[in-house]
């Protein structure tokens, strides 16, 4: 049982017997991110209705009011604001210029009489109070009626962040998130002292911020994806509302207007901003990269950007602005007379230098407003101005190069900080972008790579988690991907290499789940991994070993019932000699249970091969033209049969550009025999609609969006077995299945490496 809950349970029991002792107690000193220095002292401080806030300056009153609301929400106890500084029972917020900590740091002293928070800035006072808040027990709604005080441990803390950039990025172009959803995230991020919100407001799929001078940006520049979220954007009033909310939580908001690439939404509204203004641009339905970008040869593009910033500057009162700069293909510039003329006139050797010219002009616009520019690391390719700052996403190399050359850098390498990547095995987790970044990998990241020269380390401002939302449809999805990894980022950027400790973090994380529940955060719980298929064939016996990405209890049943926190605890590999249904889930110390993984093991015998002779190589292919969501939707008359020599030949691969050849939409049926090399239980994996081997449906996904291979098993004797594959060329939720290779891979049950079924194995 979670410590906080255990204590509350004890307290409630005590209060059942003794109505005078109505105090909730939290004796742990868990604060996340881990403070630089913390000592526990003897005794407790009691917060009750007579506890008051006092402060050394009037502006701190807003911080006091903020935490009065928070403490009331946690405990039901309402603190007051004192007229003068009382002797006892006060939380004193004191600005103190002489402290030897940085501007975001704080010193915290909790003794049995008072709480003292000291800092050089209001931001420091706010963080000191966030630490206090983490010590306050969460009281259930019923207990709020009976409890009149809460006790917290007496401690001494000296704390300051290691990095000044502790951020999160959110793409609201691919999918839109409402003001309420954003506010909810900011409120929780502030608990962990995250201080930067990088708001990716424009991209190919949608321009999501009202620009009064260019109303068509939000009338035409948003994709219609058939959901209720179509054409959603933030009005300037809503932007102000979010910024004010963030300011109250000491989070800077960094807007990003993508240039020169990822601009199709803008071009859809104003095609004159493209190299070719005759084309009918539409906001992109597909994910990926588009060839159509802002023209670098036209002056009206720069006046457009200038006008946009004229409206942005009053909305975002911060020094940093992000101008994008990533993934801008140069194909259109190469063929544009105006772009080529610009290169000639300015002595630019290539299109990479033209991109540098473009970005430098955008920077100039920002500098006229005293703003500092940040761009993705691709802008290094053609050279950057001395005042450019870099967000290093493709890896660390860009960041290392820029920092060593004296530019400020924020580290966001995909391999560590992409929150839209899987945090567990893709075969178990919901749809995500791909790759694999478990919590521990994020936690162990050090934003200062060894290659940074010592005197240049100061140029690494910090790190942020980036969240691209192609596969996040609602607020609860962004929470699932972000938590708990964003807390790891908060800790590694605040506490730093010398203070952080993963095992200690895991203990504190366990204690944070009730807080995340209080804020209704849909955080990730490590799922039972290990077996890669859910239907597993075996001959004599099979042993299943489960594990989780970080330690958490697993519970299971073998009788088909759903597991509860009280079910059998998984300890050792489970061995089966009979058909069995295994339902297994992870369960937190709070009793919260994960999604349930349902597996089935089945005792089978080796299937005999077909007695076929004189087969020719290749498979028979038939197609039906049309756009089909899945196999059940396929209708029409198949084409005449054709022979293909490789399974991959069933597909023509598109590039990542705009054009998707809709004439290629079709269902493809492949039929023939697969030559199995030796007797055994085989695993097959495929991203296709259906794979049938020896008359058993091995691959049959229940979902329509097919990005990752599903796995299935069957026991086969050596020889030729019938195989049927259904492949659909379609676009589902922004994903073109033609981006998948059409293939079926296999391995024997006791092997780990998959091999593709190649041309030597298929016959008809
Ligand atoms: C990026 O992920 N394209 C910055
Ligand atoms: Zn051009």
UniProtKB/TrEMBL annotation:
Active site, renumbered: 327 (proton donor)
InterPro entries linked: Beta_hexosaminidase_sua/sub, GH, GH29D-like_dom, Glyco_hydro_20_cat, Hex-like_dom2, HEX_bac_N, PA14_dom
First and last residue of the signal peptide: none
Boundaries of every Beta-hexosaminidase bacterial type N-terminal domain copy: 29-159
Broadest EC class assigned to this enzyme: hydrolase
GO cellular component entries: membrane
Domain called Glycoside hydrolase family 20 catalytic: residue spans: 163-496
Residue ranges that the Swiss-Prot or TrEMBL entry lists as coiled coil: none
Protein name listed in UniProt: beta-N-acetylhexosaminidase
Organism expressing this protein natively: Galbibacter orientalis DSM 19592
